[in-house]
Every structure is written in structure tokens, then in C-alpha cells.
Amino acid sequence: MTADKILDEILDSIYLAKDTTNIFPTFPENIRTSHIYVLYTLYQLGREARVSDIANKY
Predict the structure, then answer these.
(1) pTM, rounded to two decimals
(2) Alpha-helical segments (H) within the chain
(3) What is the pLDDT of residues 25-45, one digit of tens each?
(4) How many separate domains does the chain show?
(5) Cβ-count burial of 10 within 10 angstroms (0-12 exposed, 13-18 middle, 19+ buried)?
(6) What is the C-alpha to C-alpha distance for residues 45 and 58, in angstroms, rounded to an integer?
């Protein structure tokens, strides 16, 4: 691969990543990043969890 081809692929990837973020809905104003992490951790655990379970996974 030439340097021009690699650069084109990198720029295409960045452009597609930007478009992908526009697909997702925006979160309400009161939602913080920590809320998203907690929800994701609960999803990963796949069951009811205690605060300590989330803290250990976090």
C-alpha cells in the first residue's frame, strides 16, 4: 500500500465514524457520562446487581 492509499483509508474511516455518531439519538441534558457507564455495566452483568457489583466492574 502506498502512503496516499493509507491516508485515504484513514480519512474515510474518520468520516464514517463522524457520520455514525450522528445516527445515535442525543441524551437528555441531565444524563452524565457516569450514568451511561452504570447502565452499560448493568447490561454486561445481565442480572440484578448491587452497588458493589457495579463498583467492582467499573
Answers:
(1) 0.49
(2) 3-23, 33-45, 51-57
(3) 888 889 888 888 888 888 888
(4) 1
(5) exposed
(6) 11
